[in-house]
Structure formats: C-alpha cells, structure tokens
Amino acid sequence: MLRTFVLVFVLATALVGTTSLLGQERGAAPLTQILDDLKKAYDANDREKMGQLLKDMSESAQRFERGIGGRARGMGPGGGPPMRGGIAPSTFDSPPVPKTDDDKKILGVLDDMYSNQSRGMMNVSPADGRLLRLLTEAAGAKHVVEIGTSNGYSGIWFCLALRTTGGKLTTHEIDARRASLARENFKRAGVAEIVTLVEGDAHETVKNIKQPIDVLFLDADKEGYIDYFNKLLPIVRPGGLILAHNTSGQAGAMQDYIKAVTTNPDLETVFQNTQGEGIGVTLKKR
Ligand SMILES: C[S@@+](CC[C@H](N)C(=O)[O-])C[C@H]1O[C@@H](n2cnc3c(N)ncnc32)[C@H](O)[C@@H]1O
Description:
Blueprint: H1 2-15, H2 19-24, H3 31-43, H4 47-66, H5 89-92, H6 101-116, H7 126-138, E1 143-147, H8 153-165, E2 168-173, H9 176-188, E3 195-199, H10 202-205, E4 213-218, H11 225-232, E5 236-245, H12 255-263, E6 267-272, E7 279-284
Parallel strand pairs: 1-2, 1-4, 2-3, 4-5
Antiparallel strand pairs: 5-7, 6-7
The site of S-adenosylmethionine has 19 residues, from helix 8, strand 2 and helix 10.
C-alpha cells in the first residue's frame, strides 16, 4: 500500500502541472484537492478513503484522456480523425438545445450535478446520458427500470424523455445516502412525481416489478448484470430495449451478460460510445 501511495503521489505531483486543465473539467474535483485529501487519508491510515480517492484520480485521468463526452483526445467523434468530412469536431460536441423552459431547467440541474456533485457518484458521462434520453424518447417508453440510481443523474436524463412520452421511471439503489441525494435531485429537477425510487438490494427488489418494461438500464454491480437480465428479460416487452453501461471499460466483469445478449436469437445487440464507458444496446425482437 505504501508503495502504491508513493507511486501515486509522485505521479499526481507530476500531473499538478495540468491541474488547471483538469480542474476545468466539469464534474472532476481539482487534482490538487484530491492530492490533499489523499495525504490526509494516508496520515489517518484510512485505507477505504485512499481507495476511493485513487479511483477518483483514475476516473479524472480517464476523462481527461477522453475529453468530456467520451471522445479520445485529438480524435473526432467515434474515434475518427479530426475534421472528418470537413466538419469541425466541436460541431459534433454541440450541447443539447432546450425546447421548453422545463427542458432548460432540467438540463441546468444536470449540468450543476455533473459539475458539483459527481465525485464518487460514478455517473454516466453527459454523452451517455444524451444517448439514454434519445433512445428512451425514440422508443416511446412508458416504463423505464434503472438498476443503480446513485444520486439520480442518469435517472434525470431518462426523465427528460419520459416527460414527453408520458412515462415513468422505477429506479433501484442499495445505498441510503445516494438514494437520499437522488430524491433531492429529482425534486429540484421537478420530476419527482414520475419517479419511484426503490431502496434495497436490487437482486431482491426487482422481483416485485410487475409492469412491463420498455427500457431496462443496468448500471449497478457489473457481475450482477446477468442476474438482473435473467430475472427481468421475461417482462421486457417485445420491441423494448436493454441498455447496459460500462460495456467497454468493465466488460471483463460482465462476460456472461455480454455472451447472453450476443448469442440469443431473440435479441439484437450493438455496442455504442465504445471510446468512452460503452453502452450495450439490446433490442428484444418482436
Ligand atoms: C455506477 S453507479 C450508478 C450511476 C447512475 N446510474 C448514474 O449514472 O447517475 C452504481 C450504483 O449502483 C448501486 N448498487 C450497487 N449494487 C447494487 C445492488 N445490488 N442493488 C441496488 N443498487 C446497487 C451503487 O450503490 C451505486 O450507487
């Protein structure tokens, strides 16, 4: 552990030169702050805190490498070369344009959450959030089930779509502190009335879901995806979607899930945003 700490400390100190850049990254704590916290955790011999901070640093570094929205530095969207087809990459990065005042308010809350609350929350990237919203709205979803609420960031992206389709979100979270933050965030985004937050171990609580699912989003324990999939596939409606997060970064922990969705003739699966965290998009064929 001591060797790891010294190595991280040296690397981090070297990186401090880029702190201004990293500090500008939306959603990331400035590196100097993480470094300071790391020193304190080391002095207090708080191994759990040190582990969390190392994870934060690793996430920060990965985001910095990719750039916000999951694009590799110096690359065009989807990993292509810059100026592909003569269009500047910045065009592809254009932010969502709100259609109504409510949209504007919700996007503002999402922006604030990503800038000020995402540390330790393991939220999807804004690019992934936009994809979740788009797929949900295009599917005309009436019932989205999310496994892994955290503080409600991805849930609010779903709600942007569900306000339009007249649908509802059922979201599952095991951690009471994150669940409580999520409740606050759903309220301030004005979407609380279309959200049911179920607290507890989702491997158990999903057994109570009776209403057909139009979009299922898996974003909790990666090894558990196969269990959620096996339990919920029967109530995903034909034509519905199963979206699985982190299919690029954490594929190793969900091999059985990936095999299941790529070999079943009742399903069609593609993998999106593979330069970022990755989202497996599976259609349950009609
Ligand atoms: C990656 S985070 C979810 C991020 C969230 N979807 C977002 O983008 O804003 C994973 C969450 O799943 C929760 N979780 C892990 N295992 C769980 C389980 N068995 N049941 C319910 N929630 C679980 C964790 O507490 C954590 O908050």
